[in-house]
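Justification of computing resources. Each target in the renewal requires a structure prediction run like the one illustrated here; the chain below, 347 residues long, is used simply to show the kind of job we budget for.
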Amino acid sequence: METLWFIIVALMLVAYVVLDGFDIGAGIIHLFVARTDRERRIVLRAIGPVWDGNEVWLLAASGTLYFAFPLLYASSFSGFYLPLMMVLWLLMLRAIGIEFRTHLQSHVWRGFFDVIFSVSSILLAIFFGAALGNVVRGVPLAADGYFFEALWTNWRLGPDPGILDWYTVLAGVVALATLTMHGSLYIATKTGTDINHRARLVATYTWPVLLLLTFVSLVATMRVRFDVAANYKQYPIGLAIPIVVFLSLAAMLHFHTTYRDKAAFVCSCIYIAGMLGGAAFGLYPYVLPASGDPSYGLTIYNTAAAHHGLMIGIAWWILGTILALGYFFFIYRMFKGKVVLETGESH
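Resulting structure tokens:
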């Protein structure tokens, strides 16, 4: 049952990164691909019907984590208190940037909130990547399952690292490149003319960077946490994950160069799912490894809720997921196709 809930939480996090990832990616490239106010309204309209709904998966994943692995929730949310507050502020600023820009017919007003939207999106991508880097690298857990991390120390790995070091910053850069690619492919799928051309140009220049960073992050992860390969040796089926990752990268390039934007975007979704799935597969059964004594690490077994509660929760989770999937199917079907902004439209 603990393994099932581990898979459920992982799937919900993948859903969040894939769905809200293209919203964040659209924000990252917003100031480059959209030069005029009309073009920026088109980019915002491309994500407008779905961006707030996509963030529901983050809330749902957090709630599921609290229900299934309460000790992990308590430990991580207290240990990562400062970066969590920063992420919450960035999420709020991103929403403010989207919603407030149309309140006044002023170039200065709209330009200011465009910058807020873009900068907060860039920082969110880096912070989310650094957070995953902390989980993979491990944190300085004590015997009671709690920890404290400074924002940074000496940027080196060790038993008492900071939240930011060379590895977690690398993870943040990988996340930034990944979501830049993801967002540019989505905007290319949803728009035409000049915006489509610029979004495709961003994707063209980002792809080789993403390929390089994927290789570098793989090598760095093996150096930082060499035991991450243990599950791949024990369960060879897991080797399919890195194969899928690199095949999706190759297919992404192929479809992009042949102007099949939607297929390239689907490949980007598969790439993200593969990267996150590979990390989860390598970490299992750990949910938060210790950077010092390995015996202090948090696993699905020493952090899970009572078995009876997990059994009951499955029924409610299935019901909630069916409702959520039905809503998302309806929304994405209703707003499918290219974005069109009517002449004279101001919002």
